[in-house]
Automatic annotation (TrEMBL):
InterPro entries: IspD, IspD/TarI, IspD/TarI_cytidylyltransf_bact, ISPD_synthase_CS, Nucleotide-diphossugar_trans. It comes from Ureibacillus thermophilus. Catalyzes the formation of 4-diphosphocytidyl-2-C-methyl-D-erythritol from CTP and 2-C-methyl-D-erythritol 4-phosphate (MEP). It comes from the Bacteria. GO terms for biological process: isopentenyl diphosphate biosynthetic process, methylerythritol 4-phosphate pathway. It is an enzyme of class 2 (transferase). Its EC number is 2.7.7.60. Pathway: Isoprenoid biosynthesis; isopentenyl diphosphate biosynthesis via DXP pathway; isopentenyl diphosphate from 1-deoxy-D-xylulose 5-phosphate: step 2/6. This is 2-C-methyl-D-erythritol 4-phosphate cytidylyltransferase. Transmembrane segments: none annotated. It holds the Pfam family IspD. GO terms for molecular function: 2-C-methyl-D-erythritol 4-phosphate cytidylyltransferase activity. The record marks R15, K22 as: Transition state stabilizer. Keywords: Isoprene biosynthesis, Nucleotidyltransferase, Transferase.
Amino acid sequence: MDYEVVLPAAGSGKRMGAGTNKLFLSLADKPILIHTLEVFEKDSKCTGIYLAVKPEEREYIQRLLNEYNITKVKGLPNGGKERQHSVHACLKVMKDVDIVLVHDAARPFILQSVIDRLVETAYEKGAAIAGVRAKDTMKKVREGIIVETVEREDLWAIQTPQAFRFELLRQAEDLAEKVGFLGTDEAMLVERLGHEIHIVESSYENIKITTKEDLIFGEAILKNRQL
Ligand code: C5P
């Protein structure tokens, strides 16, 4: 079951405070972006990668792709102001495929087994997203005061990849663009079409490298994998 993947990589990484795109920072021996790309480069079911990039970073990224022998990239469109715009830019240059995965370039630790289950479920049901069960007690807080303790049993922390039948995601993205709706993930846009979305249990290792501490966690995850 083949698929293509969209990797938004055009963020500014303000919360990292590195003064550069956080995806260019090294984890162990290579840039975060390369760790992520290599997952899909190695997966024989992945037939194409689309990377949304900042125009001023395209040349550098192209050099990285050559240096690390990443061969599956079919498109490097300009990203947009928000992540959703970057994903949309990729969908616009893609040809028809059955299944598309959207995955944050800043999540280098995604497991192959999770990708496999997402692709399978998207083929069968149309839409599937990765997530993990909430570990902490969850409360709703307003103006510093607890207003509700939310039943943890029903709560999941949502990650990427998110996998969809290509036509379903394109329809959801086109509608969102038309009405000016901005979601925090692709699933939110598909939910608005009333389509059922399935959850695939992922791993707590699949962190999004966001702040400086995440680099420490990331190094630890890599070290643990080498044991
Ligand atoms: O900032 P954050 O880490 O939440 O962004 C998630 C992913 O989306 C990152 O890989 C980032 O590069 C990408 N992004 C993008 N275009 C934006 C904002 C974020 O491609 N305008």
